[in-house]
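does this look right to u?? NAI version
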Amino acid sequence: MSKYKIAWMPGDGIGNDVMEAARIVLDEMKVDAEYVHCDIGWEFWCKEGNALPDRTVEVLKNTTCGLFGAITSKPQDDALTELEPHLRDKKLVYFSPIVKMRQMFNLHTNMRPCKSYEGNPLNYRGTRIANPIADDVAIDQVIFRENTEGSYGGVEFGPLPESVYDALCLNPKMKPWKAKGLENVALSTRIVSKQGCASICRQAFEYAKKTGRKRVTLIEKPNVLRETGGLMTRVFREIAKEYPSIWADEANIDAICMWMFKNPQDYSVLVAENMFGDIVSDLCAGLVGGLGFAPSANLGDTYAVFEPTHGSAPKYAGQYKVNPHAMLLTAKMMLDWLGETDRANRLEQAVSRVILEGKVKTYDMGGKDSTLDVARAVAAYAVQGAKTSCGACSSQ
Ligand code: NAI
Ligand code: MG
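got this back:
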């Protein structure tokens, strides 16, 4: 029997391409795992009216962790038109299977490292107008995004039930919408709990402490989102007191987009509510070369699902054109979580070496190699690392 049982969820579009790349590397590294294929994604919404079928949920319950490619999500109106005809009158509601999975398995923490690897032609060089021959800006950030609450908590109404509408109208600030009429109003909520805020803030500080990082920045907007942003900010400040050697500071979501563009090297650990974390993680990914370099982990107390930050990029689906580094670095996070530290380190060193050499690269890095060519190059170095006890380390 294998040591690990891993739920294998390619999903949609380029999810399949990059998962195939991950498999090349995991197999070459001889990870002692059994991979259980799971149905998930748009195809299952269209055919069955459920993008996360119950049989997949059962597999997840019986596996060590999950590895996930990407899914395609569409707004409800589009989702309904793509349902098979016999399902159309069943009042089905589309939900994103990854969002559902995070909630169902209480994967409360989304950890998203963004790091510039030496030699990446896409590395950020600052605002080049001021300094056209600037060196790469060295970026090494880790985002802790709350993963089950906030704006993506899924509590939405459209149209509003009368009871909800009436309750809201008790608030005088509802006046402008009251004038527009119940049938013309939609509501998406942002519900946060003290427990959810405390959990994500503590994880960010604990991570900073464990890895010797000196700064944790909260991203919020408490001057406008006074209740939810206010609660998160109060909890952050309270927890920060327990970590006096770490600099805890705060930035508004809009302001940080500007500061991140000007001085990304100054930031280290970032912590945010679900939607703000989603936004800022794409921004940070852009600073280290784009979505082809951004891995992520959805972490719960006893289960975890690992996925690259990118989506299904339908226009590249099945072409083996996209960059697998995000997925390979995601597999590295999974190996770390499994306690396979040596393999995890070798995998990251191999990715880093392939980037530095610049010989095998996908279109986004100016190359013509395929997704699987890159995976094979990484796999070769990852295995070689084992033979030479970290041969890749000395090359950096
Ligand atoms: P996307 O991440 O799929 O792609 C946006 C663009 O980024 C692509 O067109 C491509 O130019 C680039 N890109 C993405 N991954 C890349 C890679 N590995 N290598 C090189 N370039 C890469 O986002 P988009 O187009 O907004 O969404 C497409 C679909 O994916 C939508 O249905 C969306 O809902 C879904 N999505 C799913 C996510 C998930 O599975 N967790 C996350 C984000 C979007
Ligand atoms: Mg996103």
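The first helix runs from residue 14 to 28. idk if thats expected tbh
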